[in-house]
């Protein structure tokens, strides 16, 4: 499979671009920030992009299950959708806090899980127009620029934790990160908003490792970034090293995330196990 042969992935890139245009229209104007709950902001951009993506997925992939952040169904229907063989996970605006702060660190994310495993994903940065896309089983990963030009996507070759760059949350830095840094001997730490933007930086080789403690992250935060990263040669697991199960139960990534260029995954998992007991 070459970089131009995956029609399903191409269609999802197109949908993400349409949603990004909506996001940037709102970004260019004064907008209100509401709170869905403690530490959980939402804007008109989240809701409008969510509606656009869901409509477009329904039209392009009739009958497929969709779980989107701003339109989660009631419990019974949620459980039924999670059990479907193919489920699209949608985060219409990952990094709403960063969107509200206007620092550019936000993304439109559409992922596909098949039989509970992330298989395909698109992570698009609206401020730059760059779309990272990947299909895991084909090892197909590319960056599509705003003008449509594509280049292959590949993680860094860094193998030693001492040479690694750890990317951490700008607003939800887990307490165990500091002892983890000491245990691994990592000195380069870069704060960043949005799970999608963090994983994008690992997939492009700008960073090497990301660790998330599990608080607040949901399945739609993980599916698209995981597919992109794994297709680019990286790894994405929970803190114990187990694969993420997108068939539930529930929507939370309660067991955290370790994402890396692959070469650092084993050391990071061992260090996390030691710190967390």
Automatic annotation (TrEMBL):
PROSITE patterns with a match to the protein in the record: IMP_2
Organism: Sorangium cellulosum
Binding site for Mg(2+) 1: 69, 91, 94, 221
Protein name from the UniProt record: 3'-5'-bisphosphate nucleotidase
UniProt key word Flavoprotein: no
Residue sites binding Mg(2+) 2 per the record: 93
InterPro entries: CysQ/Inositol_MonoPase, Inositol_monophosphatase-like, Inositol_monophosphatase_CS
EC number(s) on file: 3.1.3.7
Family annotation (Gene3D superfamilies): 3.40.190.80, Fructose-1,6-Bisphosphatase, subunit A, domain 1
